[in-house]
Amino acid sequence: MKKYFKFLLLSLFALVVFNSCTKDDPELYPSTLVKGAYIVNYGSFQKGGSSISKYDYDKDVVTNFFDQQQNKGSVFASNIQFAYKTGDNIFLMGNSPDQVISVDPLFVQAKNGVSDKIAKPRSCIADGKYLYVSCWGENPDWKLMPNSYIAKYNIETKVVEKKIELAGGPEGLEISNGKLYVALNFKKAVAVMDLKTEAISYIETPAVCSYFLKDNSGNLYVSLISSYSTPATQTGLGYITTSTNVLTVTPLENVSTEYASIMAFSKDKSKIFVAAAAYDANWVMVGGIQVFNLATRKFESNALVSGISGLKGLSVNPVDGNIYVFVSPSTTNNGLMKIYSEAGNAIAEKTVGASPTMAIFLN
Question: Are 168 and 187 in contact (CB under 8 A)?
Fold first, then answer.
């Protein structure tokens, strides 16, 4: 009898220990292991090569193919379009095959990605237990995008509960004042969806849109770009006052049409860095980083950095304010991450994976 009682006590102790070691426990992801910049390398569409590079900026060390290191050598089946962190989840938007991949802050993937009701995912954002995913849909026409939609994914049940139809090629997403703002990449408008009723209205724009930044007041900046299918009457940076949904535009030529990360706030949110680039005679994307001053609501006269060939995007380190500029000579060879100070001084250049597009920062 004593033997069984001792066994019962040991079982209860194990159960208590197991339940205490949940993902809510901050010690599960110690900062010494997690802290760093994680670069999303898209690779070559339908040819693989997608990966994550980790940059430990304290030690100045880059670990390429970090995702494979963390997953026993497993390679991403999809090309990673976008990365987003919420809670203890990092969601990766994967193309060809299309799926939403979930990893923890150590970039360990627990199971296969979600592919049901997910077709050509682009970007995502969370609100409570839901993740909203912009999708271009099956067999897009690349003109009007009539079959695109927003997938409403339940993070807890890991099921896409609903497809909310939204023509026009939804791209970047942001949430403010109980509304989901959607940048449309094939229609000159920003869609605004009430999160309670799911009713959709539109803000007319002079160009198609790609991504948002939200300021401390809950108002939004949106990139206005010119595309081959939908030429713009004016490109630049749009400002949406979310209480009224009124748009004002500050013009800027050649706002980058690349995906994932073409603009970012400075560390103190007093400036916005914008990638502006255009194809040269040899069809190489060449450009630089323009600076928008939030106090004056104007772009500075000179570029912070210029003459960058193969410019893909940028991200800002929220710890030290340094600007990471992503460069891709080709989609099959290693890309570069050029690091600049906020003043535009070159600090370092690091080799990363193929076609780097953005970074997320974990602490």
Answer: yes
pLDDT tens readout for residues 232-242: 999 999 999 99
Q: Are 183 and 245 members of one domain? A: yes
Q: Quick one: 280 and 235 in the same domain?
A: no
Number of domains in the chain: 2
Q: Dig out the tokens for 280 from the structure.
A: 């040269």
How confident is the model over 47-77, as pLDDT tens digits?
778 999 999 999 999 999 999 999 999 999 9
Question: Please, how many CA atoms are within 13 Å of residue 13, restricted to the half-sphere of its CB?
Answer: 6
Which token pair is 291?
A: 């600076």
Establish if 103 belongs to a structural domain. Answer: no
> Where among 206, 226, 251 does a domain terminate?
251
Of 251, 285, 314, which residue is a domain's last? 251
Which positions ≥6 away from 40 have C-beta within 8 Å?
Answer: 52, 80, 82, 83, 92, 260, 356, 357, 358, 359, 360
Of 103-112, 151-160, 167-176, the range with the lowest mean pLDDT is 103-112
Residues 270-306 have pLDDT tens digits of: 999 999 998 888 888 789 999 999 999 999 999 999 9
Residue 84 lies in a domain: no
Model pTM score? 0.91
| Residue 42: closest CA among 316, 352, 361 | 352
Cα separations in angstroms, 138 against 79, 80, 359: 17, 18, 28
**Same-domain pairing of 273 and 257:** yes
Enter the DSSP assignment of 345. Answer: -
In contact, 170 and 134? CB cutoff 8 Å: yes
Is 297 a domain residue?
yes
Displacement of CA 194 from its chain's centroid (Å): 22
Same domain membership, residue 243 and residue 179: yes
Instruction: Report the mean per-residue pLDDT for the chain.
Output: 91
Count of beta carbons in the 10 Å neighbourhood of residue 63: 15
